[in-house]
Design a protein that fits this description.
Elements: H1 2-24, H2 31-47, H3 52-58, H4 69-85, H5 101-123, H6 128-136, H7 138-153, H8 155-170, H9 177-218, H10 236-290, H11 295-348, H12 352-386, H13 395-407, E1 415-416, E2 419-420, H14 423-444
Helix pairs in contact: 1-9, 2-3, 4-8, 4-9, 4-10, 5-6, 5-7, 5-10, 6-11, 7-8, 7-10, 7-11, 8-11, 9-10, 9-12, 10-11, 10-12, 11-12, 11-13, 11-14, 12-14
Length: 445
């Protein structure tokens, strides 16, 4: 069974990667080569470097300029808002009313879905197969509610962070060539990840929701994606009504998850770009000191560095306040869903559970991978500070530099409650799920 599981997972990811590269128009001889170059580009964001051809080769999207980070950010915000328009919501403009018909229907759908999940669980309490399919969706109900609260009901914080980013890209300091070049890598990765997120999430949810119905039509059976039902009848009208509601729920899950995760990706990679900009200005300051630049020029450069770092610190404090409880809820509920999906896969051969597992895993991956990217960039900045030739500064500038060095000693990193969000946490979550799966296999044997 485990061989089939790993084989199906590998084949699935192969076709997903192939589709994504086709949609991104990345022109290489084959998918494998494209995949390697994207990994190289991600590596550049994690550890820094000046290999311009890495990101340039990865991101030859037509008619798109990555050299202007502010433009890339605005394009990304506009793209997320176009996704949100399908659901009748808007994250970034406080003037847009929340009382849109499609959003009201979405909230109504959420409440109906939560009620049906628990009602169907009680109804099928004596049927193990249907019971597992009902319990699987409980975690999503809580997670969707947390997304609605964080990004829509508590929209003021999302708007505030967006306003802060717009003001940042309008600053005179960020318009310099050094800062723009420093933001290029993070802007490129943000653009790639947004497109990949939309493609992967929407395809996964589409397969999860429509796959059972199509398979059931082939074998002439009435198969629903999940266990919750509007009507517990087996008649065709009831089946069509239940399937229509499942498709409706899947639509909102796909687009809300895509837009919320895209917002998180964009906001965090903007923070990564800010650290790159500070590092770039530090390197420029070192070059100035080596060339014996005037005291006025060096003082101006120090003020620019301090200004960007103060902005970054305030930005990360606001970012953490916005997401810290969301992270905790998301990790907990996704872990629950992954465990139940694998239990259903092992005990009742629910093969769609593999796709649901991938959908949950992808969401945790983004949080942990980008947390690692931020942590790596922060460590890289600390190394840049250590190599900074502060002793060449004048006494007044040395005192000014002390303020910057002191504030850089306490960076703000991502965490869910007391758990740091990094690759180690991602692996630990999957290790726990795998241990649970092995226990189920032993029990079943």
């Amino acid at each position: 069974m485990m061989v089939y599981f790993h084989s199906a997972l590998g084949i699935f990811f192969f076709f997903i990667v192939k589709f994504v590269f086709w949609k991104l128009n990345l022109c290489c001889e084959n998918v494998s080569r494209n995949y390697v170059y994207v990994l190289l580009c991600i590596h550049k964001v994690l550890v820094g470097g000046r290999q311009e051809w890495w990101w340039h080769y990865c991101c030859r999207a037509k008619n798109f300029d990555y050299s202007n980070a502010g433009k890339v950010y605005l394009e990304a915000v506009d793209w997320i808002d176009r996704l949100n328009a399908f659901m009748g919501i808007c994250y970034f403009d406080p003037k847009v009313s929340r009382l849109q018909p499609r959003f009201i229907w979405g909230i109504t759908t959420l409440f109906i879905y939560i009620y049906l999940a628990f009602e169907s669980t009680y109804w099928y309490r004596n049927d193990v197969e249907k019971l597992l399919l009902c319990i699987t969706t409980h975690g999503f109900s809580v997670q969707m509610a947390s997304k609605v609260y964080t990004f829509i009901i508590n929209r003021s914080q999302v708007v505030e962070v967006n306003t802060m980013n717009r003001d940042y890209f309008e600053m005179e300091t960020t318009k310099s060539v050094t800062v723009q070049n420093s933001h290029k890598s993070s802007a490129t990765i943000a653009y790639i990840l947004l497109k990949m997120t939309a493609a992967c999430y929407i395809i996964l949810v589409g397969l999860i929701v429509l796959g059972p119905a199509i398979g059931g039509a082939i074998v002439s059976e009435k198969i629903l994606p999940f266990g919750f039902e509007l009507s517990h009848s087996n008649a065709w009208p009831a089946y069509i009504m239940n399937l229509a509601f499942h498709v409706n729920c899947g639509f909102y899950v796909a687009f809300l998850t895509t837009s919320s995760d895209s917002t998180f990706i964009l906001y965090l990679l903007t923070a990564v770009g800010q650290i790159d900009a500070i590092s770039g200005l530090l390197n420029e300051l070192n070059e100035m000191l080596e060339k014996n630049a005037s005291e006025e020029v060096i003082s101006l450069q120090l003020r620019r560095i301090f200004q960007l770092h103060q902005h970054h610190f305030a930005y990360m404090r606001m970012f953490k306040n916005m997401f810290q409880y969301y992270f905790m809820m998301a990790i907990t509920m996704l872990y629950f869903c992954m465990s139940i999906c694998l239990a259903a896969f092992v005990l009742i051969n629910w093969y769609m559970g593999v796709l649901v597992f991938c959908f949950c895993s992808a969401q945790i991956f983004y949080m942990c991978f980008l947390g690692t990217a931020l942590q790596s960039k922060t460590e890289f900045l600390m190394k840049e500070i250590d190599s900074f030739s502060w002793y060449r500064l004048s006494v007044p500038n040395q005192k000014f530099a002390i303020l910057f060095l002191a504030s850089a000693q306490n960076p703000i990193l991502l965490s869910a409650a007391m758990v740091k969000l990094n690759v180690a946490t991602y692996l630990q979550v999957h290790k726990s799920v795998y241990s649970f799966l092995m226990l189920l296999l032993r029990i079943k044997q």
